[in-house]
Design brief:
The protein is mainly α. The chain is about 60% helix and about 5% strand. Bound molecules: tryptophan and iron/sulfur cluster.
Length: about 400
């Protein structure tokens, strides 16, 4: 795999927090389901990460991992389309984490915005550990292991991703340098054959001398299609384009998707810890009960009182679930008090249940036969491991501990 393929690769992970809810679906999973058909996707359960904030309570991690994966399969992630695995089943994550930890300056970690926040806010947990401080390095290992070019994350994770990029850059800077880099690069160019070599040289010159980024893309595409370059030489030539050394670990980018914020039934953000969720695969009558009890614009005390949809979490759900006609019907009916809140909630209950029906159906076979889930994870983890081993071999060679 070379830096160019990294553009085709997506990786993301979630901690095993147990059964998921419709907020997870609209915030992330729905997007993953799309991405699996467009990219070479790696999705994993981040069980090592769960330990960074919760090493004291591990009794649920395995059950939660199972539940998480059943939810993933239920919403349509498919082991045929994406590599689905468990982090701890690919021990190379720990090994790469260790190697990256050697070059990561401690102040970079202390500066991560969520670090101090969480130290202050997760008061009852012991976060004074080495593992918690190093958690972004573990995340860097997760991503860089697969040379993922794109990482779908929420806004709160953008700072982490910037740190991952810095760690990759620093690693490449330190270990991508080799004695006589230029000579090796020139030799690699010669290997490409006359015409590609000429095009490469010209594009490199245009980029280095005039900052012509189109020339850079052209040269990268040219390298991607060369059949007779070894991985090492390809990396050298990617690195040579931009001046420095070899690019061993390509820098990932955040794949930000505008995901709607799903309110919980109490109007706050939907979250397990607030106990205000509508779970994935929730049975239709529970969905109905929960939505019926959902808080609305407090100004609508009686049916005759007009309301304001913009002050109502139920209307936020309409924004997620309803078409324009239904939204107009709800908003007009609310402002003119021509419909009641129970009427307003009706189409939502139907829409949520319609969305969930195929999830419930798909999950059934997995709930009835847990071994199917285990097989998905064993096979996914083995496939991930092969990729991981390849990266680690190169990383160790670059560091100087290949012992070949
Ligand atoms: N940090 C993420 C979370 O806490 C999970 C995660 C771990 C992750 N490694 C990752 C997400 C790599 C994206 C890429 O939910
Ligand atoms: Fe909310 Fe609908 Fe009731 Fe208006 S009518 S307050 S939008 S539930």
């Amino acid at each position: 795999m070379s830096s160019s393929d990294s553009d085709q690769r997506v990786l993301s992970g979630m901690r095993p927090t147990g059964r998921m809810h419709i907020g997870h679906y609209h915030g992330a999973l729905k997007n993953w389901v799309q991405l699996q058909h467009q990219y070479d996707c790696y999705f994993f359960v981040a069980d090592f990460h769960a330990l960074t904030t919760g090493y004291q309570d591990t009794e649920n991690i395995e059950q939660f991992t199972f539940d998480t994966v059943v939810d993933w399969l239920a919403v349509g992630l498919s082991p045929g389309a994406a590599t689905i695995f468990v982090q701890s089943k690919v021990p190379e994550h720990a090994e790469l984490h260790l190697l990256l930890s050697m070059i990561t300056p401690v102040p970079w970690l202390e500066r991560v915005p969520t670090y101090k926040d969480q130290l202050a806010n997760l008061g009852d947990r012991d976060l004074g550990t080495y593992g918690f401080l190093g958690y972004p390095v573990l995340q860097a290992a997760d991503i860089l292991m697969y040379r993922a070019g794109h990482v779908p994350v929420g806004g709160d994770q953008v700072a982490h991703l910037e740190l991952v990029r810095e760690i990759a850059r620093r690693f490449n800077h330190i270990f991508g340098r080799e004695p006589q880099f230029e000579m090796h690069a020139e030799r690699a160019i010669a290997q490409m054959g006359k015409r590609p070599a000429r095009l490469y040289r010209q594009a490199r010159k245009d980029y280095l001398e005039r900052g012509d980024t189109e020339a850079l893309s052209r040269a990268q595409a040219l390298l991607a299609e060369q059949q007779n370059l070894s991985i090492g030489n390809r990396e050298r030539l990617f690195g040579y384009l931009e001046g420095g050394g070899r690019i061993i670990l390509p820098e990932p980018q955040a794949l930000l998707t505008e995901a709607p914020q799903v309110p919980g039934v109490d109007g706050r953000k939907m979250s397990k810890s607030y106990n205000n969720t509508i779970r994935l695969r929730e049975s239709p009558d529970v969905v109905e009960q929960k939505v019926r009890k959902m808080v609305t614009d407090p100004a609508r005390v009686r049916r005759e009182d007009p309301g304001d949809p913009n002050k109502c979490p139920v209307f936020e759900l309409h924004e997620v679930y309803s078409d324009d006609d239904t939204k107009t019907w709800a908003a007009d009916g609310c402002r003119g008090a021509s419909i009641g809140c129970i009427d307003c909630k009706g189409p939502l209950i139907d829409a949520i249940n319609r969305e969930q029906a195929p999830f419930i159906e798909r999950a059934e076979q997995f709930e009835n036969n847990p071994d199917l889930v285990r097989t998905v994870l064993i096979e996914g983890s083995e496939a991930a491991r092969e990729e991981a081993r390849e990266t680690l071999e190169e990383v160790k060679a670059a560091v100087g501990i290949a012992h070949r």
